[in-house]
């Protein structure tokens, strides 16, 4: 054996020691150093329909119980009014005019795909994702190199894992656009790109659904992921719990993202929740928005939808309670951050029900955010305004992950950030613009200091702005845009300046 | 066994003619539908990504064309030669076109998800009617001279499209494999 000189040994010793320590450090990175992070996102859950936030119907007893061990954000907003921009903002910490995922089923700007929540935590965490919403699945599918465990969006559903894109994991996002929206058009349209295989695929899929859709637990039928799968929430939550219980069997810290479809429409609660809310509560009637005037939904129809939605929320809440009890019993709440939120809300007013399109009112933008820190036993309430773009900067601060992108969000109060009542928040709907060009036609909501401005740049409307004082008028009934021109001017200038800045890099 | 099976199948040139007709309807339909989608794709997908969508589509179309061809070949195996194989090109083209059109018409009658029960429930009678219509037209295609010759010429003309579609499919397959192993 060749002898090593003392001089050489002294030279090499620090390197060997550093290498050994680094290896030990990597091995020793356990859940104790980095607690698990579990995100549970309920699609289309408005904070304003939760009894946790003062809604008159008792829709969320389990969330209220869980809140006793959480930090609760009472003025939390989504940056988008439907799944794609809302989820993309949460995943990137950026506003839609920067991440550019503002089309129905759109994608995050490709150069930003390596800076999403799932990419940044990939160094140290074992990542699991399950997105029942296909558009959210598509966004998570953009993570370069994929993630360790990415469940099929139809997992735990009646359909099973048999989507074409399940067989193309290396190109999940684009394969899903090719198959689900074009060749097989799962939305149920009559113009499928694939004339024969599409026909056979729909036949096979719909035969299964017709055979199985009658479930005695669901008198109004099973809830459905639009065209993709029928599912029972009991099975979905059981599946999620099973996935999470496996966290305990691994020493490596875990990052889990569960994007669950309910209470998204169609609202089909189970038998237990169909009987709820047989009450006389009346909700304020609001003027029909000009964009909805052609729809002709009667107020009674809209209120009927609200009732069904509330029942669906209550059903989700029941299943969530069972899930949390299961996690608590397994000790996972002692070792994990559990973050409960939504991608956007839902509204039942102004001649409209649902979300998206061009509606930017509070019910569709206000979403829940509860964060349980490992072992937390005390409730903490935060009333200052926050946005879902804040979640990634907060996770970055919690975990020490480092992004190369400057976030639009801030670290959340309660986790190192400051409460700021005067902070400006933006939410927007910009689906009528190209993702590769400046935003010229959009609906943009800006919250600042208790005021809310809704701007309609690019639309030929009689009133280009609406302005509300949310402190005095939380129902957004008194439009101040023609009465308080000085406040309008200040807010409008800030909004237009911000839009110009966002557009600057797209002007050639 | 294999030799007997081969005996019952039409000549290669005839098979190619029917395959050309099948490929023409499958690929052309996809291209037609894609033109409706293109404006929205240009809104959020890059040119390379749109090309990749077409790559997936062409690979799918090739499989679809083979499937349609095999449907046209089945009667050769089960029916007497004079009933089907002797006028394979004309009858095969009729079958391919009618089956394809029937599928699209059936879909157009049930264009939304809430009609799925009607879609599934009507399939038996729909395809029974399609079978009668196909049989009738195929009978005419074999008996009426000008009709038969017209269909054979049509299939022959369509084979020019194979020079376009087959290379596009080969490129599509390469793109698809590259995107999924990259």
CATH domain topology of the largest domain in chain A: Alkaline Phosphatase, subunit A
Outline the low-pLDDT stretches of chain A: 6-28
Quaternary structure type: heterodimer
Rg of chain B, Å, rounded? 19 Å
The share of residues in helices of chain B is over 70%
Query: Averaged pLDDT of chain A, please?
Result: 90
What coarse outline of chain A follows from CA principal-axis ratios?
Answer: globular
Largest interface, counted by CB within 8 Å of the partner chain's CB:
A-B, 43 and 47 residues
The major pleated sheet of chain A works out as: 8 strands, mixed
**At the first level of CATH, what is the class of the largest domain in chain A?**
Alpha Beta
Q: In DSSP terms, counting alpha (H) and pi (I) runs of 4 or more, how many helices of chain B?
A: 7
Question: Main traits of this protein?
Answer:
heterodimer, A: 508 residues, alpha/beta, Alkaline Phosphatase, subunit A, Arylsulfatase, C-terminal domain, 2 domains, eight-stranded mixed sheet, four-stranded antiparallel sheet, 18 strands, B: 182 residues, mainly alpha, 7 helices, globular
Reconstruct the topology from this structure.
The complex is a heterodimer of chains A (508) and B (182).
Chain A: H1 6-27, E1 36-42, H2 61-67, E2 71-73, E3 76-77, H3 83-92, H4 96-99, H5 117-120, E4 126-131, H6 134-140, E5 149-150, H7 172-183, H8 197-212, E6 224-225, E7 229-230, H9 233-245, E8 254-260, H10 271-274, H11 299-329, E9 336-342, E10 347-349, E11 352-354, H12 362-365, E12 369-372, E13 380-382, E14 386-387, H13 391-399, E15 424-429, E16 443-448, E17 451-455, E18 465-469, H14 485-504
Parallel strand pairs in A: 1-8, 1-9, 2-13, 3-14, 4-5, 4-8
Antiparallel strand pairs in A: 2-12, 6-7, 9-12, 10-11, 15-16, 16-17, 17-18
Helix pairs in contact in A: 2-11, 3-6, 6-7, 9-11
Chain B: H1 2-8, H2 12-44, H3 47-78, H4 88-109, H5 116-121, H6 123-143, H7 145-181
Helix pairs in contact in B: 2-3, 2-4, 2-7, 3-4, 3-7, 4-6, 4-7, 6-7
């Amino acid at each position: 054996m060749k002898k090593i000189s003392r001089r050489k040994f002294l030279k090499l010793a620090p390197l060997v020691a550093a290498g050994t320590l680094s290896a030990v450090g990597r091995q020793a990175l356990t859940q104790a150093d980095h607690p698990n992070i579990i995100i549970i996102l309920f699609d289309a859950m408005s904070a304003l329909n939760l009894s946790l936030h003062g809604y008159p119907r008792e829709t969320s007893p389990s969330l209220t119980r869980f809140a006793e061990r959480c930090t609760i954000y009472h003025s939390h907003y989504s940056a988008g009014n439907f799944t794609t921009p809302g989820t993309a903002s949460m995943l990137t910490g950026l506003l839609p005019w920067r991440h550019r995922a503002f089309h129905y089923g759109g994608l995050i700007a490709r150069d930003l795909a390596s800076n999403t929540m799932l990419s940044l935590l990939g160094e140290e965490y074992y990542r699991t994702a399950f997105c029942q919403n296909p558009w959210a699945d598509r966004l998570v599918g953009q993570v370069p190199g994929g993630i360790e465990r990415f469940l099929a969006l139809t997992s735990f559903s009646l359909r099973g894992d048999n989507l074409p894109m399940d067989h193309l994991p290396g190109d999940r996002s684009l394969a899903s656009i090719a198959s689900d929206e074009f060749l097989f058009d799962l939305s149920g349209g009559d113009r499928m790109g694939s004339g024969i295989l599409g026909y056979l695929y729909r036949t096979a899929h719909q035969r299964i659904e017709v055979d199985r859709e009658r479930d005695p637990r669901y008198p109004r039928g099973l809830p459905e992921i639009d065209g993709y799968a029928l599912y029972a929430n009991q099975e979905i939550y059981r599946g999620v719990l099973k996935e999470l219980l496996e966290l305990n069997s691994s020493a490596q810290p875990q990052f889990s993202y569960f994007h669950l479809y309910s209470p998204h429409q169609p609202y089909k609660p189970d038998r237990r929740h169909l009987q709820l809310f047989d009450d006389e509560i009346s909700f304020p009637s609001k003027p029909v928005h000009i964009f909805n005037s052609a729809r002709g939904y009667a107020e009674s129809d809209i209120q009927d939808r609200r009732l069904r939605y509330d029942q669906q929320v209550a059903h989700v809440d029941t299943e969530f309670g069972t899930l949390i009890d299961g996690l608590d019993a397994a000790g996972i709440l002692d070792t994990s951050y559990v973050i409960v939120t939504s991608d956007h809300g839902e509204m039942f007013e102004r001649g409209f029900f649902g979300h998206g399109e061009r509606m930017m009112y509070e019910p569709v933008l206000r979403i829940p955010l509860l964060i349980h820190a490992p072992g937390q036993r005390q409730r903490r309430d935060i009333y200052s305004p926050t946005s879902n773009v804040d979640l990634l900067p907060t996770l970055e601060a919690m975990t020490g992950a480092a992004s190369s992108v400057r976030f639009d969000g801030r670290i959340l109060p309660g986790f190192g950030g400051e409460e700021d009542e005067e902070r400006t928040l933006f939410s927007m709907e910009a689906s009528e613009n190209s993702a590769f060009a400046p935003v010229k036609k959009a609906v943009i909501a800006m919250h600042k200091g208790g005021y809310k401005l809704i701007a309609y740049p690019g639309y030929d409307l009689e009133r280009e702005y609406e302005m509300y004082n949310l402190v005095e008028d939380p129902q957004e009934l008194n439009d101040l845009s023609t009465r308080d021109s000085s406040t309008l001017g200040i807010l409008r200038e800030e909004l237009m300046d911000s839009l110009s800045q966002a557009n600057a890099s797209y002007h050639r | 066994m294999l030799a007997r099976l081969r005996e019952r199948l039409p000549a290669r040139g005839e098979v190619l003619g029917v395959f050309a007709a099948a490929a023409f309807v499958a690929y052309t339909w996809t291209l037609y539908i894609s033109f409706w989608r293109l404006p929205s794709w240009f809104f959020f997908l890059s040119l390379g990504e749109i090309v990749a969508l077409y790559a997936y589509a062409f690979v799918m179309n090739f499989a679809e064309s083979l499937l349609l061809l095999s449907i046209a070949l089945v009667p050769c195996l089960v029916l007497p030669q004079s009933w089907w194989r002797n006028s394979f090109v004309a009858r095969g083209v009729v079958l391919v076109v009618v089956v394809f059109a029937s599928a699209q018409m059936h879909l157009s009658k049930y264009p939304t998800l809430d009609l799925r029960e009607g879609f599934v429930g009507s399939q038996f009678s729909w395809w029974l009617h399609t079978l009668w219509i196909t049989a009738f037209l195929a009978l005419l295609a074999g008996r009426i001279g000008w009709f038969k010759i017209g269909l054979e010429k049509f299939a022959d003309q369509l084979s020019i499209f194979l020079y376009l579609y087959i290379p596009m499919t080969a490129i599509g397959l390469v793109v698809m494999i590259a995107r999924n192993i990259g």
